[in-house]
Each structure stands twice: as C-alpha cells, then as structure tokens.
C-alpha cells in the first residue's frame, strides 16, 4: 500500500512540474497567433513627440527602437509576465537605443512590448526568453545601423524637404530590400512628416521586402504612441529636427 501511495505522489508531482513549473511558458496554439515574418520597427523621436500631448523635452536625435513585432499576432501568452531583471546585463543599451520617448520610466514601455509582441516572437528558439528577445532586437538594430546609413546617403533631419521616392531609393540602395515608411499625414498647409520605418525579417532573420498593400497595415498591430501613422504618400516629406514646425 505504501509503494502505491508513493507512486501516486510521484506521478502527481511529475504532472505539476510539467504544467506549472516549465521554464518557458507554453505559447497559445491558435490561428490568431500564427505569424509569418517580423517587423523591426524604428521610430523618429521628434515625430513621436509631435504626435503626443504630454511633455516631451529634448527627444533623441537618432532613430530608436519601437519594437520587434511578429505580423498578425499579439499577446500570445498573457501569463508570461515581464521581468525587468532579465535585462540587467544590457540595461545601458536598452536605455540608449530602446527608450520610452514619452516617459522617463522605460519599464512600462518594455513590458508592453514584451507582453504584446515578445510572447509571440518567442515561438522561435532564438527569441524564446525575454533576454533573447531584447538582445536579438538590439543586435539587429545595430546591424541595420539606420542612423549612419541615412546620413551617408545625405538624408538628415532639418529644414530640407525630401521626395519620398528619394528616401525609398536611398534605403533600397543600402539594404537591397524595400522597407515600409510611415508618416504622420499632412494637415492643412503642412507636409506629411516621416515618423517610422519598418524593416521586414524572415523567421530566419534575413531582411526581406515589405511589399504588402496598404490595406494590410493592420496586420502588424500598431502601438498607441504611433497609431496615427500611415503609409507615406509619394510626395514631399518632412524629416523634422524640431517638434514645432
């Protein structure tokens, strides 16, 4: 009788460990959480500040990370909560390259990005922990090196207006793919304002064209801070160096 009881306890412990104590939480398995590619999203801090009412002083004058977003998926595992201690080994880089433009405390922004997008990206082994997800995003941000390459091809913020075609051609000449450029739509008497650039990545982390029609924009769920952005029109575009234009 004693051996049977012991066996029962061992079986019970095994199933508890399997379902409750897994090191990597299980991802939801549904069509809603299926995705095909990743967006590495850069946003222009000056434009982000222009779009928001809260105080936003001295935004960085370089493109920063908005996030790494699987398309067509969000909040794949709501039980997998954010733990900021996972970022301690590269916190300085997070603050510099992935800051919350609108708030001094960056943790809420990073939590949002992990819980909405990271828990879906974790389907890939290379992204299946918070540390891997944020480190891999930083790695590709440095590899793409958008700030340096725009300057090298003569596109820089300031009073000069650019034809969108010139910006596209410059990016395509550097990266050999077509990214997705998003703008704040023009108001009366003003030009559209460049605000966000998305690079598309395969699940193997190679750059690919972002060739979806404009109607597919909603497939990559926008975050609140830039939800007013849309695909830029082929017209004059402003790349602002000041919040008040």
UniProtKB/TrEMBL annotation:
A single GO BP term for this record reads: RNA catabolic process
Q: Name one GO cellular component term.
A: endoplasmic reticulum lumen
Q: Which GO terms describe its molecular function?
A: hydrolase activity; ribonuclease T2 activity; RNA binding
The places in or outside the cell where this protein is found are: Endoplasmic reticulum lumen; Lysosome lumen; Secreted
Q: Is Disulfide bond one of the keywords UniProt gives this record?
A: yes
* Record field: catalytic activity: a guanylyl-uridine-RNA = a 3'-end 2',3'-cyclophospho-GMP-RNA + a 5'-end dephospho-uridine-RNA; an adenylyl-uridine-RNA = a 3'-end 2',3'-cyclophospho-AMP-RNA + a 5'-end dephospho-uridine-RNA
Q: Where is the active site?
A: 66, 113, 117
Ordered alphabetically, the record's keywords are: Disulfide bond, Endonuclease, Endoplasmic reticulum, Glycoprotein, Hydrolase, Lyase, Lysosome, Nuclease, Secreted, Signal
Transmembrane spans:
none
Which protein family is named in the record? Belongs to the RNase T2 family.
Its name, as the record gives it, is Ribonuclease T2
Q: Which gene encodes it?
A: RNASET2
């Amino acid at each position: 009788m004693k051996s049977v009881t012991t066996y029962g306890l061992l079986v019970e412990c095994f199933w508890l460990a399997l379902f409750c104590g897994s090191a990597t939480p299980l991802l939801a398995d549904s069509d809603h959480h299926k995705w095909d590619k990743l967006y590495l999203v850069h946003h222009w801090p000056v434009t982000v500040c222009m779009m928001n009412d809260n105080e936003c002083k001295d935004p960085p004058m370089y493109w920063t990370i908005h996030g790494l977003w699987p398309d067509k998926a969000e909040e794949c595992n709501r039980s997998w909560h954010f733990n900021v201690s996972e970022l301690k080994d590269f916190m300085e880089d997070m603050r510099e390259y992935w800051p919350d433009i609108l708030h001094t405390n960056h943790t809420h922004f990073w939590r949002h990005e992990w819980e909405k997008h990271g828990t879906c990206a974790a389907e890939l082994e290379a992204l299946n922990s918070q540390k891997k997800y944020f480190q891999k995003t930083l790695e590709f941000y440095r590899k793409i090196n958008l700030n340096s390459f725009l300057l090298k091809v003569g596109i820089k913020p300031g009073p000069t207006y650019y034809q969108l075609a010139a910006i596209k051609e410059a990016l395509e000449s550097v990266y050999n793919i077509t990214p997705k450029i998003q703008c704040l739509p023009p108001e009366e008497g003003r030009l559209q304002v460049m605000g966000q650039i998305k690079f598309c990545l395969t699940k193997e982390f190679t750059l690919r064209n972002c060739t979806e029609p404009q109607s597919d924009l909603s497939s990559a769920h926008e975050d609140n801070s830039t939800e007013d952005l849309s695909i830029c029109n082929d017209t004059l575009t402003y790349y602002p160096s000041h919040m008040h234009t």
